[in-house]
Amino acid sequence: MTNPRLKELRQRLAQIHQMGGPERVERQHQAGKWTARERIAYLLDPGTFEEIGAHIRHRGQGLGLSGVEAPADGVVTGFGRIEGRVVYVYAQDFTVLGGSLGEMHAAKIQRIQDLAMASGAPIIGLNDSGGARIQEGVDSLNGYGEIFKRNTWASGVIPQITVIMGPSAGGAVYSPALTDLIIMVRGTAQMFITGPQVIQAVTGETVTAEALGGAEAQMARAGVAHLLADDDQAALTLVRRVLGYLPNNYLEEPPVVASDDPPNRIVPALRDLVPLDPAKPYDVLTVIQAVVDQGSWLEVQPTFAPNVVVGFARLGGHPVGVLANQPRVLAGTLDIDGSDKLARFVRLCDAFNLPLITLVDTPGYLPGTAQEYGGIIRHGAKVLYAYAEAVVPKLTVILRKAYGGAYLAMCSRSLGADLVLAWPTAEIAVMGPEGAANIIFREEIGQAADPEAARAAKVQEYRERFAHPYVAAARGYVDAVIDPAETRLRLVAGLMALYNKHEARPPRRHGNIPL
């Protein structure tokens, strides 16, 4: 005879697992989206998900909520494993009240945040929500605030990854913005503070939801998204890959994997990659992919501020963060967006013990009134702050141009680089030879019988005296001038030597990063 209490449990669970019912599940599928439970099942190792809070119900009574069934209150929460590692996860269920966040919905997410912090394990949020549950009023707003607070407490303690897989509007966008990495799904994900209808009513502008807050817009234009995926499956696969570079928490080292790429591999092609003419561009991605472990490069925000490049990779199986100037875009100059991109990635890597590999080829900061009025000074200062603050191993390779303040900003010795290498093509100076000669020898050039010939001669003189790495090397600002083909083996050797680096900082409450 079946235990009636056990039968009741099974019936309740069956109802909960139906989510919003067959029709709403079908509409979710027709929209190109998986359900919350399908997403969790794919994300985690098979059979490892343990749900928490499945029986929680909302307590709303007014505005049509009284008596409304909302299985799991529109969010599935629990823990499981990815590649054997414990992770905590929540997935908003759009088939139940549009995945809207109310008091108990928020409490379930807060519970998972608390457990993740206490356990020192990553937390992954799968967002697909219409926003605050209007019927629950201020309780919904309070729920968001409690989540934001926990996002902030967890920052730099455990990895926080958010996947935007549907709408995310109003207050719903701020929790993702407080996490470490945001992955968005093309075509189905949108993020915005105010939607198209509000914008049209207030400003008269006409814009679609996709153009306003779609995945491409939020990466390339706003810089909010870090990684994009074509569908739910690709996004969740990307989460698993990203976690492979990150530790469980700030007290642990990132996971090391066996690499079949020889650490002492020579790359002869690098000897001719960088043009001797400093005005000629090249693709720094070619350098990165030639140096890091083959197949390990994962670029972050590739279409936002493309004049700088950041991403995860491995060297000798060890996860690292790579940062570089991109000479083929704006000549590799630093601008407002590029500075923000660099600074945040430096701090992410430093928070989770990923060594920093910086490849330098920049003529300086991007000039212009738009940059100055936009605050390039305070934005550029973020890069200085981030590198100087970082205590992980910092290895820098100067490929070609390293001029002025941008030379300092790109992890120079004076900002705390542990190992600075330079290629023979490196030019380290206050400014480029042309600009320097025009200033230093202005009177001499102006008084010459042939000013153009005199200018050319002075430019060449300056180039021969300063536009090379040996003056900096003579003063100890560069540790070694190397054969470009040996870059990989030099970096791997340096990384291994610095593996146990420990660097203390003065005690304080916290710093005050430029904004």
CATH architecture of the largest domain: Alpha-Beta Complex
Low-confidence stretches: none
How many DSSP-defined strands? 17
CATH superfamily of the largest domain, please? 2-enoyl-CoA Hydratase, Chain A, domain 1
- Overall CATH class of the largest domain: Alpha Beta
Describe this structure in words.
There is one protein chain. The protein folds into three domains: 4-243, 2-enoyl-CoA Hydratase, Chain A, domain 1 (Alpha-Beta Complex); 268-430 and 467-497, 2-enoyl-CoA Hydratase, Chain A, domain 1, CATH 3.90.226.10; 433-466, no CATH class. 38% of the residues lie in helices and 17% in strands. It has 20 helices and 17 strands. The chain has helices at residues 4-17, 22-30, 36-43, 103-119, 138-154, 174-178, 196-203, 209-213, 215-221, 232-243, 284-291, 336-351, 369-374, 376-389, 404-409, 433-440, 442-447, 451-466, 470-474, 487-497, and strands at residues 50-52, 75-82, 85-92, 123-127, 160-164, 167-169, 181-185, 190-192, 227-229, 298-300, 308-315, 318-325, 356-362, 394-403, 419-422, 427-429, 480-481. Strands 10, 11, 12, 13, 14, 15, 16 and 17 form an eight-stranded mixed beta sheet that branches. A seven-stranded mixed beta sheet has the order 1-2-3-4-5-7-9, sandwiched between helices. The longest helix has 17 residues, at 103-119.
Sequence-ordered SSE layout with sheet pairings:
Layout: H1 4-17, H2 22-30, H3 36-43, E1 50-52, E2 75-82, E3 85-92, H4 103-119, E4 123-127, H5 138-154, E5 160-164, E6 167-169, H6 174-178, E7 181-185, E8 190-192, H7 196-203, H8 209-213, H9 215-221, E9 227-229, H10 232-243, H11 284-291, E10 298-300, E11 308-315, E12 318-325, H12 336-351, E13 356-362, H13 369-374, H14 376-389, E14 394-403, H15 404-409, E15 419-422, E16 427-429, H16 433-440, H17 442-447, H18 451-466, H19 470-474, E17 480-481, H20 487-497
Parallel strand pairs: 3-4, 4-5, 5-7, 6-8, 7-9, 12-13, 13-14, 14-15, 14-16, 15-17
Antiparallel strand pairs: 1-2, 2-3, 10-11, 11-12
